[in-house]
Amino acid sequence: MTDSSIFYIFYGLMQGITEFIPISSSGHLNILEIFFKNLESRNYLYETSAHFASLLALLIYLYANKHFSKSNIKTYWKILIYATLPAILLGLFIKFYNVNFINLELIGYTSIVGAILLYVSDKAKKIKLRIKNKSTKFILAGFFQCLAFLPGFSRAGSCIIAFRLFGEDRKYSSIYSLYMGIPLICLSFFSNFEEFGNFIIDKNLSLIFITTFFAAYFTISLFIKVINKIGFTPFVIYRIFLGIFLLAYIN
Predict the structure, then answer these.
(1) How far is CA 239 from CA 107, 113, 114, 145, 157, in A?
(2) How far apart are CA 209 and CA 7, in angstroms?
(3) Whether pLDDT at 193 is above 60
(4) What are phi and psi for residue 100, nearest 5 degrees?
(5) Global pTM?
(6) CA triple 89-74-218, angle to 5 deg
(7) Which site among 18, 191, 215, 229 is 20 to 30 Å from 221 CA-CA?
(8) For 167-185, what is the mean pLDDT?
(9) Nearest to 135 by CA among 175, 79, 84, 186
(10) Segment 119-135, tens digit of pLDDT
(11) Is residue 153 pLDDT above 70, yes or no?
(12) Would you say the C-alpha torsion 244, 175, 159, 27 has a positive or negative sign?
C-alpha cells in the first residue's frame, strides 16, 4: 500500500468518524490536509465523495432504526427545511464572496470554545431554556448550526449544544443533530456541483467513499447507543487537548 493510499484511507476514516460526533469533521480534515498536503484550502472532489458516503450511511442508519416512519417524516420535514434556512443563507454568502479562513490557529480556538459551550450546555442545569414547541427548538438550533462554518467548531456539536440548552437529553439531542444533518449534508454535496465535471471514479476517491461509509455507519450506531451513559465530557476533553496542541504547534 502506497503512502498516497494511506492518506485517502485516513481521510475517509476521519470524515466518517468525526462527521456525526461533536468534534468537527471539517476541522479534522483541514488539519489532515495542512499537515500532509500542505493545503490551506478545501479539496472539493474529496469532500464530494466523503459527503455522499456520509449521507448514505446516515440515511441507511435512520431507515434501519425506523426513523423514516410516515408520522416521523410528517412531523419533521417542514421543520428541517425552516431550520436549515439560516445555514443556506450564510453558506451562499460565503460561497459568493469566496470566503476562506482555514488555518490551524482558528481550528485551535474554535475547538476549545466549542468544548466549553458543549460542557456548559451538558452540565449547567440552571441555564436550560425550557422550550416546549419542537419547531422553535429546531429553528433556533438552525442558527446554532451556522457556527459549523467555522472550521473546528462542529456541525453536530453546535446542534447538540442547542438541543441540550433547550432541555433535550443527550440521546435525543444527538438524534436531532442527525436529523439536522440530512439537508445540510445534501446541500454540501450538491454545492460542489461544478466539480462533477471533473469527477472520475478512481482508486483514491473509492477509498475515501468506502472508508467514510463504514466508519460513519459504525460511529453513528455506537454513538447513539452509548451517549446517555458516557456523556459528552470525553469529547470536551479531546477538543480542549486538540486545541491546545494546535495553538502550541503554531507558536
Answers:
(1) 10, 9, 8, 18, 11
(2) 13
(3) no
(4) -135, 115
(5) 0.93
(6) 75
(7) 191
(8) 95
(9) 79
(10) 999 998 878 888 889 99
(11) yes
(12) positive
